[in-house]
Amino acid sequence: MPEVPTLMESGINMDVTTWYGLWAIKGTPRPIIDRMYQATVKTMALPEVKKIWDSLGAAPGGQSPAEFEKFIKQEIATWAKVVKASGVKVEN
After folding, report:
1. Is residue 8, in this structure, part of any structural domain at all?
2. What is the residue-wise DSSP string for 34-65?
């Protein structure tokens, strides 16, 4: 489709990656979130888990809950621009 501009040609500089995250229900007590985070970091550091990620060509992130929240907010802002630029409308 040569007539369709690329994202870059449309003024959108994108770095698209796949990512995974763990979520907790809003209002989950901080000690529980911290415990989930620590358990996740410990698990991701296991050699057998690292090996699986490596075999998939992936790298575990291990962001803190605060860093992940900031990342999610950036993702929402980025993809909101893409949706707006596309002109897509939601129909109910």
Report:
1. no
2. HHHHHHHHHHHTSHHHHHHHHHTT-------H
